[in-house]
Amino acid sequence: MIDVRSAVVVKAHVLLFVLCVLAGCRTETEETQPQQMVFVDTKTHVAVVGPVTDQFPALNTETGKRTLMPGLYCPKCEKWYPVPSPDQINHRPDGGLCPKTKTSLIADGPWPKR
């Protein structure tokens, strides 16, 4: 039979767990991991995953050059393309379309293999 003290300890642990879940507690590892996004290298046209940044073109750590642009995905040809420059989007009617299929590019798609 479980004694009263053990039952209170179990209830306290359950309550603490529920409160942590409801409060959105995270482990230290989750908080310190950087957010990720898909980039397309403008020289090689290879899609890569890297930390979110607000400076574009972003630095490609493999080449040491600023050649990474945010990626947009074409669901029809299943390929990532670099985000067009603001001039292309604003002045060309096909600026946000896939160059091959003329389908609208979208921000989310399957992440490229690393």
Task: Characterise the protein shown here.
With 114 residues, the protein is an alpha+beta fold. It has two domains: 1-33; 34-114, no CATH class. Helices cover 27% and strands 25% of the residues. It is built from three helices and five strands; from the N terminus they run ααβββββα. Strands 1, 2, 3, 4 and 5 form a five-stranded antiparallel beta sheet that branches. It is globular, with a radius of gyration of 23 Å.
Write a brief structural summary.
With 114 residues, the chain is of the alpha+beta class. Helices cover 27% and strands 25% of the residues.
Topology:
Blueprint: H1 4-23, H2 28-32, E1 36-41, E2 47-51, E3 58-60, E4 65-74, E5 79-82, H3 86-91
Antiparallel strand pairs: 1-2, 1-4, 3-4, 4-5
Shape: globular
List low-pLDDT spans: 6-29
SSE class: alpha+beta
Mean pLDDT: 78
Task: Supply the key terms.
globular, 5 strands, five-stranded antiparallel β-sheet, alpha+beta, 114 residues, single chain, 3 helices, 2 domains
